[in-house]
Write a structure and sequence with these properties.
Rossmann fold, five-stranded parallel beta sheet, binds adenosine-5'-diphosphate, binds magnesium ion, globular, 10 helices, 5 strands, alpha/beta, about 240 residues
Length: about 240
């Protein structure tokens, strides 16, 4: 990881791990991120759950402007700058200090969302967004970048009961472009992203996700079962 304002996440073994869950709306990111935090905590790993944009005072204010204040006009380029501004603050103020203390970070959305929503679906130059992301993160990259994926039809129907935010209000074609872009980016860059099928039951998705997390665990916890694995093992015994 590159140096940022003289502060760099350390490389020592006790450094916290940085896990990102990204993907289209309704893929189950927030559901799985909450579960992942509780599962890691259960293994004795201090874990911070963050969402983008947000996680700092500045970030939450930017979040309101970006997602809730729909009467305020914002071009896709302006959106890109605002998401990146919130990200820069989050990386500096929260993520790097947490990782350096040995705390794990689970983050709901990160750089791929800006590339997908503002560039690939929103029309801002792709390279410009990549450069902005590199500046905003100072080169800090997730240890696991998971892309939970569902077709936009499933995503839209899962979220049908809630009011649309600014991004979701861009319409069904936009959401289809978003879902397609997440999938193609993850397929094209398998060393950077792990594509996870989010269309199964929450339990099925958990298992796929946990497989990706297990190799990151300290060796002494790696063999431990998740709660649901324990339940299944018990019911098979009895
Ligand atoms: N695997 C799943 N199958 C069915 N419904 C799900 C699943 N995962 C989450 N949900 C439900 O779908 C809705 C959207 O899930 P959420 O985790 O908020 O998605 P995201 O954060 O990706 O938009 C919620 O009501 C949630 O309870
Ligand atoms: Mg969510």
């Amino acid at each position: 990881m590159a140096s940022r304002n003289g502060r760099t996440p350390g490389k020592w073994a006790s450094r916290g791990r940085f896990i990102v869950l990204d993907g289209p709306d309704g893929a189950g990111k927030s559901t799985q991120a909450r579960w992942l935090q509780s599962e890691l905590e259960r293994l004795g790993i201090r874990t911070l759950l963050l969402r983008e944009p947000g996680g700092t005072s500045a970030g939450e204010a930017i979040r309101k402007l970006l997602l809730e204040q729909r009467e305020v006009g914002l071009s896709a380029l302006t959106e890109a700058f605002l998401f990146q501004a919130a990200r820069a603050q989050l990386v500096d103020e929260v993520i790097i200090p947490a990782l350096n203390k040995g705390t794990w970070v689970v983050c709901d959305r990160f750089t791929l969302s800006t590339l997908v929503y503002q560039a690939l679906a929103g029309g801002v130059d792709e390279q410009a967004v990549e450069i902005m992301s590199a500046v905003a993160t100072g080169g800090v990259e997730p240890d696991r970048y998971l892309v939970l994926w569902v077709p936009s039809k499933i995503g839209i129907s899962r979220r049908a009961h809630r009011a649309n935010d600014r991004m979701e209000a861009k319409g069904e074609k936009f959401m289809r472009d978003v879902a397609a872009a997440f999938r193609s980016q993850a397929e094209r860059n398998p060393s950077r992203y792990r594509l996870i099928d989010g269309s199964g039951t929450p339990e099925e998705v958990r298992q796929l996700l946990w497989k990706q997390i297990q190799p990151l665990l300290p060796v002494q916890t790696r063999a431990r079962k998740t709660k649901s694995q324990e339940r299944r093992a018990k019911s098979q015994d009895s």
